[in-house]
Amino acid sequence: MKLRLFFTPNGLTEDQILGRTTVVIDVLRATSVAAVALKNGAREIIPVATLGDASGMRAKLDPSMVVLGGERDGRKVEGFDLGNSPFEYGPERIEKKSIVLATTNGSAALLIGSEGDHCLACAIINTSEVARRLAEIKQDIAVICSGNKGGFSLEDTLCGGMLIDRLKSSSDNLSLENDAAWVALDIFNKHKHDLETALKQSDHGTTLVNLGFERDVNYCSQADKIEICPVWKSGRLIRLDSE
Ligand code: MLT
């Protein structure tokens, strides 16, 4: 298996993901929320690029079965049902519901990643489960970090490195194809004994703590807390076991 990693989805071309399984990462917080929501019984997550797309999608679905979630500048959007904190996605709010998710970086990256042969959503809380699925698919991999407003993000790169670490320990035929993949592995190795501190030092981690979301950052830094692998299918993310 060959693996290449992209620090951001900017400038990604079709041929860089063609014929590969993509793994999209947005640790703070979109892919963490996707994993939590599916664990708590959401029917599906429908990522959309804009707030307008979110309202448009809601209008197409049964109003009693849809929940609008997401953020702009880390905060819940006016008129939305939920923000982008994993703690808002408990079973009482989202069980059996379709979640239309509009976040700043993660939703857009998922839409780009969905062009891969398979597309999986990864965060620190479910990395090992994603690695297990990749080992079954046995295809070359493109890891797409969502980044932060077009730039590099420490937490997504670190999570990409954690995924490489997990894949390396389960397979001896993984080869890293670009410098970014090696850098991600180095960053993970540097911080692996204290992911929470690393996340709090990151740009977006600091922003979230300042907005009062320290609990989210703590939660999102827990390695392999849940065994859920969100997979892309026909315009939405669903649980691997409900495929
Ligand atoms: C994003 O997609 O940019 C995020 O998940 C941001 C956030 O939750 O604060």
Structural notes for this entry:
This protein has eleven helices and ten strands. It has 243 residues and is an alpha/beta fold. Helix 6 crosses helix 7 (154-170) and helix 7 (154-170) packs across helix 8 (179-191). The chain is globular and about 50 Å long. The two termini are 24 Å apart. D-malate binds at residues 26, 28-30, 71, 74, 84, 103-106, 146, 208.
In short:
This protein has 243 residues and is an alpha/beta fold.
Largest sheet: 5 strands, parallel
Q: Radius of gyration in whole Å, from Cα?
A: 16 Å
Task: Give the spatial strand order of the biggest sheet.
Answer: 6-2-7-1-8
- Give me the number of helical elements: 11
Could you state the order of secondary-structure elements as H and E? EHEHEHEHEHEHEHEHHHHEE
- For the secondary structure, the number of strands is 10
Small-molecule components bound: D-malate
Question: What share of the residues lie within helices?
Answer: 40-55%
Shape call: globular
Structural class: alpha/beta
Low-confidence stretches: none
Write the layout of secondary structure elements.
Layout: E1 2-6, H1 14-17, E2 21-25, H2 30-39, E3 44-47, H3 51-60, E4 66-70, H4 91-94, E5 98-102, H5 106-113, E6 118-122, H6 127-137, E7 141-145, H7 154-170, E8 175-176, H8 179-191, H9 195-201, H10 203-210, H11 214-220, E9 230-233, E10 236-239
The site of D-malate has 13 residues, from loops.
Q: Can you tag this structure with a few keywords?
A:
243 residues; alpha/beta; five-stranded parallel β-sheet; three-stranded parallel β-sheet; 10 strands; 41% helix; globular; binds D-malate
